[in-house]
Amino acid sequence: MLYREALNRAYDEAMALDETVVTLGEDVGLYGGSFRVTEGLVEKYGEKRVMDTPIAELSIVGNAVGMAIGGLRPVAEIMTGNFSLLAFDQIINHMAKLRYMSNGKITLPMVVRFPQGVSKQLAAQHSESYEQMLCAVPGLRVLSVCDVNYAYHALKHAILSDDPYIFIEHELLYNKKGGVNFDEQLDPFKARIAKEGRYVTIVSYLKMVDDVMTAVPEIEKELGCSCEVIDLCSLNPVDYETLKASIEKTSRLVMVEEDHKTGGYGAQIVSWAAEELFYALDAPPLRLAGADVPIPYNRTLELASIPTPDSIAKDVIEWGRKNDV
Amino acid sequence: MNKLEAENIYFEMVRGRAFEYAAKEHYMQGDISGFLHLDIGQEALSVAAVKAFEKGDIFSTYREHIMAMARGIEPSAVMAELFGKASGVSGGKGGSMHLFEPSHFFYGGDAIVGGHIPNAVGCAYARKLQGSEDGVMVIFGDGATNGGAFFESLNNAATQKLPLLFLCENNGYAIGTAITRAAPFKEQVKKAEPYMLTYSVDGMDAEAVYNVVREAQTKIQEGHGPIFIEAFTCRFEGHSVSDSNAYRSAQEMEHCKAKDPIEHFKAVLREKYLLSDADISTLEEKAQKEVDDAVTFAKAAAEPEVDALFEHVFAEEV
Ligand SMILES: Cc1ncc(C[n+]2csc(CCOP(=O)(O)OP(=O)(O)O)c2C)c(N)n1
């Protein structure tokens, strides 16, 4: 099953299970979603539950907040993360805060789906990643899905949960293939150990996990050691327990993310490790991230602006040699 | 419009269409990537509006190749940008959706729907402050008129009596959603009526577009304040090259293509401006040659150096 099909299945099952689940967004209905995630839902559940909206992102999220107050379970699709900036007032000032400000009287069972990241040559206004901003807001659950099985379980969990969720997807993952175990009980807040290893812990999320996995054989060959790869899956909350166990075992931490390095999400993981695990570390942590530039259109420049399997391998090997890995 | 202007507009429309087909072909071959939004079917509007708004600043959206060329940006510089080359009008950093040339008073190429409208308001404010009379034209689709930025801009421009021409290209669709499913009426001009003088025009008729934009710019130059024009048009292709266009029926497409603005204007050239078939062929051949040359140029042009990645983030290095 494809990643987008897994998400579609999660929607479908949640909508069948609970008739208060509705979805809204640009082109989600008749068109089937610009990444085909909502394909077929309008035929099955009708236009009252699958709503095409105008190009008005603030209203998409703001209306979803109101729908949730009114007793529905809305799933809002923001066509891509860059356009979500128009909705950030609703996301931060309303979606994230109403429960707390009302002393728990208002509950917002809602999800904002959030495709983002550097796809292929879409230029700066179509390439951003916003997990760093979203995770800096107390009151939002933030999931960042890499694995297909996880995608299905995590989205279904998010839709049926009583909290406001941001569900981040990477645009290059939609056609990823993977098996889904429908009967499994999967905890969406638990990090996934993508690969076990002994000497280096490489932490990542979203598409970068796959790029790290591509780089690992080369790293292991050159450094002569095995790497453990952790897919965070959930960015808020973070499964620090799994991270701690892994870093205590390997004594080394590499953090890989696609977003710009300054202020990027990985700074959170590395600063946590510095505070909590300083004496467990045998080497300074390595942080690999995108360059601090708007993403350029030209393919060569675009690839130079973000970590790639090649650059990840090269940078980790260099760091490993310098630090006696 | 005089004969020379008419010939020139026809030439640019034909060149625009040839350019778009060439871009599509090279997209299929992998020379061009990312999003490619073609303007085929909307040439009359894009060319005539830009030609009529002779002086002054222009802000546009991602469907802007033809407007950029009508503004005087070389087809080779536009094509090289689509190819991501260093000699592209944005140095290969912007691509199809982001063509900028301040020396021609042309500012994009903005890919955030409606995002450039407030920018145009600000520029109009600057021009008013500077005592310039030419004004600013902001071009956007029908889909952009449902966002907050649009309504805020109408209000601000009208309150401050800014020299700003709002030009709505109503092609009936925002990607796959028909405007009538996203707004309570088809005519988006109704949204501007309480704020300013408005016009509606057939966007498939180059002469009509030219005349109405000319009139509007003249009024703006006379200190009239903001004006809104809605031009009804029809795109012949999908929203972008990767859009299958499946939401429009064969019948609807046939109806749309029957209004081909190039065919329509060709007839005007013959009847009103008395151009012969040979005159018309000469223009068409010249247009095709410019496009072929642009492709040859773009193909041979150099890639940007990798160091360019860090250039132009700031004006001043610290
Ligand atoms: C703020 C924002 N939301 C969504 C998008 C995705 N998007 C790109 S073009 C488009 C449709 C715009 O339609 P319209 O304004 O009518 O212009 P047209 O493409 O028809 O020329 C959408 C939804 C975007 N680029 N920006």
From TrEMBL, chain A:
Q: Name one Pfam family in it.
A: Transketolase_C
What is the superkingdom listed in this entry's lineage?
Answer: Bacteria
Keywords from UniProt, A to Z, are:
Oxidoreductase, Thiamine pyrophosphate
Q: Which SMART domains match?
A: Transket_pyr (SM00861)
Q: Which cofactor does it need?
A: thiamine diphosphate
**GO molecular function terms listed in the Swiss-Prot or TrEMBL record:** oxidoreductase activity
Domain named Transketolase-like pyrimidine-binding: which ranges? 1-176
Q: Which InterPro entries match?
A: THDP-binding (IPR029061), Transketo_C/PFOR_II (IPR009014), Transketolase-like_Pyr-bd (IPR005475), Transketolase_C (IPR033248)
Q: Which residues form a coiled coil?
A: none
Please report the name of this protein according to its UniProt entry.
Alpha-ketoacid dehydrogenase subunit beta
Automatic annotation (TrEMBL), chain B:
| Protein name as catalogued | Pyruvate dehydrogenase
Family annotation (InterPro entries): DH_E1 (IPR001017), PDH_E1_Alpha_Subunit (IPR050642), THDP-binding (IPR029061)
GO terms, molecular function: pyruvate dehydrogenase (acetyl-transferring) activity
Record carries keyword Membrane: no
* Coiled-coil intervals: none
What organism, scientifically named, is this protein from? Sulfurimonas paralvinellae
Cofactor(s) needed, names only, are: thiamine diphosphate
* GO term, biological process aspect, one: pyruvate decarboxylation to acetyl-CoA
Q: Tell me the ranges covered by the Dehydrogenase E1 component domain, including all copies.
A: 13-306
Keywords for this protein: Oxidoreductase, Pyruvate, Thiamine pyrophosphate
